[in-house]
Amino acid sequence: MEFIFVLDILGVVAFSISGVLAAMRKGLDVFGILIIAFATSVGGGTLRDVLIDTDVSWLTNMTYVYVIIITTIFGIILRNKLNYLRKSLFLFDTLGIGLYTVVGVEKAISAGLPPVICVAFGTMSACFGGVIRDILCNDIPVIFHQEIYATACILGGFSYFALAYFNLPQDLIFIISGLIVIAIRISAVVFKISLPKVY
Amino acid sequence: MEFIFVLDILGVVAFSISGVLAAMRKGLDVFGILIIAFATSVGGGTLRDVLIDTDVSWLTNMTYVYVIIITTIFGIILRNKLNYLRKSLFLFDTLGIGLYTVVGVEKAISAGLPPVICVAFGTMSACFGGVIRDILCNDIPVIFHQEIYATACILGGFSYFALAYFNLPQDLIFIISGLIVIAIRISAVVFKISLPKVY
Amino acid sequence: MEFIFVLDILGVVAFSISGVLAAMRKGLDVFGILIIAFATSVGGGTLRDVLIDTDVSWLTNMTYVYVIIITTIFGIILRNKLNYLRKSLFLFDTLGIGLYTVVGVEKAISAGLPPVICVAFGTMSACFGGVIRDILCNDIPVIFHQEIYATACILGGFSYFALAYFNLPQDLIFIISGLIVIAIRISAVVFKISLPKVY
């Protein structure tokens, strides 16, 4: 599925750049920037794989490593122009979380986990790279207190099981639930929808 | 052992509420509050299971997940009344760390680890959910600089091995060492005993 | 290899003391100081072993545990004199990262991982204890924004593979690439060389 591969790489690019930007904002050196780009990109999937106790994919698939290194270099060079790419990066990020949610759900299903946990793992795959980025940068994770982000993944994850209940073909379930994540996330940003805060 | 099950659930309730309170203090949204409640409740046991390389229990046992979700919802709704429940919550928390310490020690023993490491794992099971909560909330872990908490677990863990040395029956060892944790923790709070700080 | 064993212990001592100092600076109690000394010493190797999915070595080898406990006690007692030992501690630390880098690279090679990943794991073994220390102390990891440290490990890791390419004997590769880490690190401190920061 070449199409999926392209989405995956766009997601990694968007996640790396978000790491590069966060690290530059903190005045880190190039090593720090690279590590944070790396942790943002692969952190969620790594945590998922360690908890499920399956092989961590970037250990043997070098594509991710190279994409992250190249993105980090370009991100540093083009840092004053990244603002012009903001909309594209938002789009890549959104495509990325759509894909990673569904991939995470499917990985958890094939590990034989119950549906609610599978949804949690889909969300973790998409969102926890950002949580690790913020912890490394000594900030409270931004997804805990901003526009709807993880919630889009949760709803997309549940829709995966709703669609599976109606016996739709596998590919269609994959695409529709990914699109649900993407649609919710875009709506949340366009209409500035946040989860309620509690004081 | 229904008795143990009730203690376990009370512990999860107390840990979740402590997560909910910490997250609300930071102004997080409902997703952030839920994740921090979750991490506080299962974080210690999860770290233990990953390090021992055994199955992480909440992946397949949905009871914890449901208890945490329900507790979080009630915690948010009743947030202005939680202060009245302070004493009950302290009691639940204390029962919880007593139980988790002994459960953690026994899990480590059955993994064939040496006694000192088993005590460390008992303490980790009881205390590291709170460490993860504080890291996610961008605070220095409170158990590193406040009233005796982890120390109660360490002493309870060692008493487990002391009692085993005298060949007491398994159930009695379990109960006595759990009670030792609970007694030390309650005394520490009542008499305001802290570990020495070093400058 | 008694020689290696001595280096290893010196490294653990240096890492523990760096944890003790960081924890004391934050005003933590003796439990907090011990945990941070422990995390600084074994954190990098533990993360490596969890990701590779191999046994975590300090679970069964009590030597590390005892060395860390004893070092922490001495560190606390001698806290006002540690400044006089600064140069020795720097030397121990540098010997430590030289050794841990090469050990980490070799562990990753025997897990069948590709060279770039092996270098990453060597660097992680040497440096991520310090990252975990700084996260627990609520600081941005110091190796992300100071004098060359991780970079010495990365270069030493790559030189391991360069030397292996020329079919040098295993022991010689081990020693030379460790010495490269040490030489680069010492030069960086003596000549105050940092990586470029990016704003």
From TrEMBL, chains A, B, C:
<feature type="domain" description="Glycine transporter">
    <location>
        <begin position="6"/>
        <end position="79"/>
    </location>
</feature>
<feature type="transmembrane region" description="Helical">
    <location>
        <begin position="148"/>
        <end position="166"/>
    </location>
</feature>
<keyword id="KW-0812">Transmembrane</keyword>
<comment type="similarity">
    <text>Belongs to the UPF0126 family.</text>
</comment>
<dbReference type="InterPro" id="IPR005115">
    <property type="entry name" value="Gly_transporter"/>
</dbReference>
<dbReference type="GO" id="GO:0005886">
    <property type="term" value="C:plasma membrane"/>
</dbReference>
<feature type="transmembrane region" description="Helical">
    <location>
        <begin position="58"/>
        <end position="77"/>
    </location>
</feature>
<feature type="transmembrane region" description="Helical">
    <location>
        <begin position="172"/>
        <end position="195"/>
    </location>
</feature>
<keyword id="KW-1133">Transmembrane helix</keyword>
<feature type="transmembrane region" description="Helical">
    <location>
        <begin position="111"/>
        <end position="136"/>
    </location>
</feature>
<dbReference type="Pfam" id="PF03458">
    <property type="entry name" value="Gly_transporter"/>
</dbReference>
<keyword id="KW-0472">Membrane</keyword>
<protein>
    <submittedName>
        <fullName>Trimeric intracellular cation channel family protein</fullName>
    </submittedName>
</protein>
<keyword id="KW-1003">Cell membrane</keyword>
<feature type="domain" description="Glycine transporter">
    <location>
        <begin position="91"/>
        <end position="164"/>
    </location>
</feature>
<feature type="transmembrane region" description="Helical">
    <location>
        <begin position="31"/>
        <end position="52"/>
    </location>
</feature>
<feature type="transmembrane region" description="Helical">
    <location>
        <begin position="6"/>
        <end position="24"/>
    </location>
</feature>
